Amino acid sequence: MRIYPLSEGSFSIDETKVFKPFNSSSPDYPNRPKGSILVEVQPFVIITDNDIILLDTGLGYLNKMGVLQIHENLMALGIDPSKVTKVFLSHLHKDHAGGISYLHPVHQEQFISFPYAKYYVQRREFDEVMKNSHNPTLLAQIGVLENFSGVVWLTQDKGVIDNLIHYEITGGHSEFHQVAWMKENEEIIFFGADVAPQLQQMKSRFVAKYDMDGKKSMEWRQQWWVTGAKEQWTFAFYHDIGQPTFRIDTTI
């Protein structure tokens, strides 16, 4: 398997939950808004023997040419977005699910971003967000899934997709947040999404205030760090600036 981050940039985010572009190499780096955190937003693409898999879809921003950012990032790697076969959604917060679909700048219609792919989505996560979110843009972006023939609704707490993607609901960050292990040819890539978003959090007993249950997330990270070392996982960190993937050295 090959894995590539599809970075959409660094962002400062505070209690308003608005993602503001932030240059982490600028002299103002230590002086971001009070109470904010600095994150990278980076979906991943994994190329296996038979599939091109997306892990989450980013913010859903369009570039100046009206091209979806995640499409541009894929094409920069030589990957035709229409060739993506699977899209796995960890949860449906804006920074992970915004690229599910996009508003066409000319037709002003919502288009599914990867029409030839299967979208794997937790049904309970979808229902919860559609019922409780007050963000009309997000609701439009994810709402198209209801009538899209390519959706595979996941209804179990854990399972296996095509003997390749092993998933499990963890909670922690959101009630139906799920993680995934891609397993092929004795190789394991682990995607912990927002329960395991950054390398540094794996190494400490960090409890995040932005989690629904920060203690539960911390306990998951400790468990995965130990198991990942034993089984030589490659970790994919969605929000890590500078360290998108990491494989634990068994000597540490």
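^ that was protein a. below is b, sequence first then the tokens
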Amino acid sequence: MAKYSLDEGRRLVSAARSSIELFLKDPRFEPEMVKSTLKEFSKPDGVFVTLRHYPNEVVRGHAGFSEPIAPLGESLVEAAIAAAFGDQRFVPLSHRELDDVVIEIDIISKIEKIGGSEANRLKRLSLGRNGIIVRHGTNKGILMPEFPVRHRLSKQQALEEACIHAKLPESYWKQPSVEVLYFTSQHFIEETPSGRVNEMVMNKLHAPRRGAANS
């Protein structure tokens, strides 16, 4: 995965918000309007967009692509619109709510399949660094790297949660027939709705720390 600068991260988050704003004004708007401003983000990368209520950080929408199926700029716009209006857990975002949510994006690195024993899968997982994908047949569950940190999960609990997201029994990550994959990501997030964007990293206490890219 390319290392994106903080300025680039800020541009991408701003584009995600613009996409949502334009869709709210007219659901028939042409996404190419925003995609055309992101031509330099031509490298295919997976990306997820998450909306969170501010300041309680409760998720309001989440969508994206784990695989690099299109240029990052194009995938970002599609993910932003899907997070705001296509997450089936929620009703579509309203004009009023947009001013009360922060936008965050995760740019996904190359995904690595983790085989072997239960012990190896635990050993290879680095909390705060690795995201998790659990896949079995048509069932798929994804955890962003920050999820276990936010919820103070152990390695085993994180793998169990990924199974739950995949609608599988929580112990299925132990089965050799179940695919377990790890990835890393760059995580950019607004401090406040429409506010300053920083890159989030994890400190040694496994707590979110924002603004590290400026230090």
